[in-house]
Amino acid sequence: MAGVVNVSVERLVALGAEIFEAFGVAPDDATPLARHFIRAEAQGNVSHGVVRILYRAKQFAAGKANPRPRIVFSEASGVVKAQADGGIGPLVAERMLERLVEPSRNQAVTLGIAAETGTMGALGVMARDIAERGMVGLILQRTDPFMSLNGVPSIGNNPFAFAAPLAGADPIVFDMANSVVARGVIEMSAKSGAPIPEGWALDARGEPTTDAAQALAGALLPAGAHKGLCMALMVECLTRGLAADLEPAASQRRWPLAVSALFVVVNPELCGATTYRETMARWSAEYVGKGGKIPGHAGAAKERESVARGVDLGPAGVNALREAATLAGLSPDIVPSS
Q1: CB atoms near residue 296 (< 10 Å)
Q2: Pairing of strands 219-220, 109-117
Q3: Within the chain, which residues score under 50 in pLDDT?
Q4: pLDDT value for 19
Q5: Do 1-63+309-338 and 68-179+222-296 have matching folds?
Q6: Nearest CA-CA partner of 235 in 131, 126, 152, 123
Q7: What is 1-63+309-338's CATH topology?
Q8: Pick from 138, 146, 12, 24: which is nearest to 88 by CA?
C-alpha cells in the first residue's frame, strides 16, 4: 500500500521509549509508557496509538506534564489513592495497577483512585491487561468538558473500559467514550482535512457540522443523546467526586493536568462465583452461536498479527513519530520512512 511502512512492534516500542527518555522520562518508565501506545496501535486503535506519542511529546515540550512525577500513594479503608504530581495517565495507571492486581488474588475487590494526572490513553489496553491476569477490570476517567447537546461544552465524554476473562479464549474488552465518537478520531480528521459524518458534533453556534475543526471548536454529541450524558455524569461522580480530597486547590496546582480516574479490580472466585469461568465460557459460546461477536476478540487477533508481522504505519503515524522525535531534539531519521 502506498505510503505505508511496516515496522516491528519491538522497534516501535524502542522508538517511543527513546523519544520519552529524551524528554526526561526515567528509562524504567519510558518502555512501558511507549508499549502502552504501541499496543493500542497493534490492536487497531490508531486514534490512540502512535499519534498519541506526539500528543504526549507536545505536553512534555510545553511543560504541561511531569516526565518524572513523584506519585504519592496512600491507602485508607481498603482504597488505594494516588496523587499523581502531573504524571501522564498511562504511567500513573501502570503504577496503580501494580498495587491493585496482585492484591486482588487475596481480596475480592480492590479499588484505586488517581488525581492530578493526564488522560489515561487507551483504557482498553489497561483493562485487557487486568483480564489477561484472570481478573475483571473496570476503569473510568473524566476528561475536560467538550461534550453537550447545545454546542456549549459542559461535561467530558468521560470514557470507561471494561474487561473480563473467558476460559480458553481472549477476554471480553470494550473501551468507549460517552460521545458518539472519541475526540481523537475527530482530531485525526481535522489534521487530515477529512470531513466527519453529521451527527458526531456541533459547532460553536450549536449547529450540526461535518467540519472536524469546527467540531473541535464546538462540542461532541453524547452517544444516545441523554443516555450518553447520564453515563458521563455517572463517571464524573465516580472520578471527580471520589477524588475531590486528592485534588490540590487551583492556586496550589503545579501542573495543568487535572484528570482523575477510578480503577476497580474484581476477583470473581473470591466474590463467591466459584463457577465463574465455566459459566462465562458456556454463555459466550451460546452468544457467539447466535451470531454475537465478543468485543475485544478482533483487537486481540490484530495484536497477535502485528506482533508476528509488524505494524503497518500510514503517513499520519510516520509523520507523528518524526515530529515527536524532532520535538525531543532527536533526528527524525530515527523513524523508518520506507
Answers
A1: 25
A2: unpaired
A3: 1
A4: 98
A5: no
A6: 123
A7: Hypothetical Oxidoreductase Yiak; Chain: A, domain 1 (1.10.1530)
A8: 24
